[in-house]
Amino acid sequence: MAEDQGEENMASKLEALQRWVDEAAALTRPAAIHWCDGSEAEYQALVRQMLADGTLVELNQQTHPGCYLHRSNPADVARVEHLTLVCHPEREDAGPNNHWMDPAEAHAKMDALFDGCMRGRTMYVIPYCMGPIDSPLSRCGVEITDSPYVVANMRIMTRMGAAAQARIEREGTFVKGLHSTGELDPERRWIMHFPAERLIKSYGSGYGGNALLGKKCHALRIASNQARDEGWLAEHMLIVGIENPRGETHYVAAAFPSACGKTNLAMLIPPEGYRRDGWKVWTVGDDICWMRPGADGRLYAINPEAGFFGVAPGTSNDTNPNALASVARDTIFTNVAVTADNQPWWEGLPGTPVTDWQGRPYDPANGPAAHPNSRFTVSAKQCPTWSEKAEDAQGVPISAIVFGGRRPSLLPLVMEAQDWTHGVLMGAAMGSETTAAATGAVGVLRRDSMAMKPFAGYHYGDYFAHWLSFDKPGMKLPKVFHVNWFRKGKDGKFLWPGFGQNLRVLEWMIARVEGKARGEQTAIGTLPAPGELNLDGLDIDAAALDELLAVDTAGWQAELAAIGEYLEGFAPRLPERLRQERRRVADALDGDVVAPRTATA
Ligand code: GTP
Ligand code: SPV
Ligand code: MN
Known about the structure:
This protein is an alpha+beta fold. The protein folds into three domains: about 15-55 and about 80-230, Phosphoenolpyruvate Carboxykinase, domain 1; about 235-305 and about 390-590, Phosphoenolpyruvate Carboxykinase, domain 3; about 305-380, Phosphoenolpyruvate Carboxykinase, domain 2 (Beta Complex), CATH 2.170.8.10. It has 17 helices and 29 strands. The strands form six sheets. Strands 11, 12, 13, 14, 15, 16, 23, 24 and 27 form a nine-stranded mixed sheet that branches. Strands 1, 4, 5, 6, 7, 8, 9 and 10 form an eight-stranded mixed sheet that branches. A five-stranded mixed sheet has the order 2-3-18-22-17, with helices on one face. Strand 28 (about 520) and strand 29 form a beta hairpin. Helix 12 crosses helix 17 (about 575-590) and helix 16 (about 555-570) runs antiparallel to helix 17. The protein is globular and about 70 Å long. Residues about 1-10 and about 595-600 have low confidence and may be disordered. Bound molecules: guanosine-5'-triphosphate, sulfopyruvate and manganese (II) ion (MN).
């Protein structure tokens, strides 16, 4: 695309930006530099180029207009947590939750990899804005990359191009990201963050969270540092609006680990009876949430992203019809399978695949046809339930924060924290079975505080303290809940139907927020009192429900001990308030008495 760039498109009037691009070019030696304007014409030119060189494969344009398939290198299909580093000047600041390297050493290592790596290739300069272009909560960045696939994805996932560049030139500040796919060699792959410099360097991967630097690298790892400095929160959360039959909407933010149901909850379709009664669900975001206190003391949230990079497998008309409708056109699919008539396919869809995610004839002996972490990239505007409030510069007020994970046992379907401190403990104590979203073993239970284990860009002890700091006079904080859609029975099957039926649980939460449900206080938190969960039209047996809402005291005592051990791993930076809160819950369990600070409905 180097030939078609106009002279006026060649530079930035912001000296800091121009200088950094010049430095990156001097290091990587590209044949050409293209400043992305974010236009449709630019996107189409990139697509044509990628179709010509095989980076993209055209899918059935009758059934899926504007849809393409990208097959990534089979050794480059997920985030790589062991190769992702947070390089604070002081090792301590990265915490035991992050891999660390001395910044000088990290720069030397990365610059040696970047040296001359773009020879013969085009360097793309991508100015982007995370969040509505006119929102005071938004933050900008510039990603430099040699991957046209990254450019195309960033155009869908962010507000990318001329408007973002104009804001950057007005504000004078931006997060820097330098990326090259390099040789796609796992031995020469690093994702490095330099929070003090607001800088990211990523080499050797073209995949999702490793390469689309606006997403996890900027909007979570760097932004969590910006958020701490500036008094806000950058979280791995969906944002969903729940409209009741009276037309009132409550916004809920929920943190579940990767591939644990954020996209699905954000796009939920109400069960039949609820639809008839007039309940509606509005999607504001499916992965990342930036929140800050408003003048009224409530937390206001924006979705910094403009698109979805969603998990394909399991997405169907039964589970998530909104996602399926969204990806019917103008979508980039990565590592899915293909049917005989060239439609995208993954496990959970009807029909049969003929070609697997690696482009081989499908053979069940090779495993699933679509990679378990195969994804779709699509503009959020294509989602039938996309909320107009997602473009609101002020963000949406959050009524409830929800934590959750894949817990086959112990954790009840839903419980409510007594107060903010207890809520922070619930978030910090989160555990979940690992998924295919990152390389490594799948299905292993690990602690994943606030679903931010791979994304908190500084010491978890300091991060917990930052969360606690929002509890101060004048604040009207959301209620905090913990859910578990993944509880299994003795037969190994899920006890709760999940998906659209999760609205029943959200309805109870909202009733609690509005003071309309009494709840039942227990040592671990407030659970729905008998009869409070609306089960009309749901076929679930009483024994399953009992199990889902039971409190196993002995099991919880062991869990609290394990949580204590985990939290002490963050000493001496573990906030004393959190330590005491854990003790309070443990004592309540030991006495099996109702804890003293009981919330009133
Ligand atoms: P990331 O994009 O990786 O951050 O993931 P996510 O949290 O958005 O996960 P997503 O909604 O894509 O869900 C991932 C998997 O969980 C899919 O296979 C879903 O089918 C499954 N899932 C989502 N919600 C539910 C639920 O309520 N119950 C059950 N049993 N499975 C669910
Ligand atoms: C996740 O892994 O949580 C994702 C996908 O949302 S990625 O962009 O690869 O991080
Ligand atoms: Mn995610």
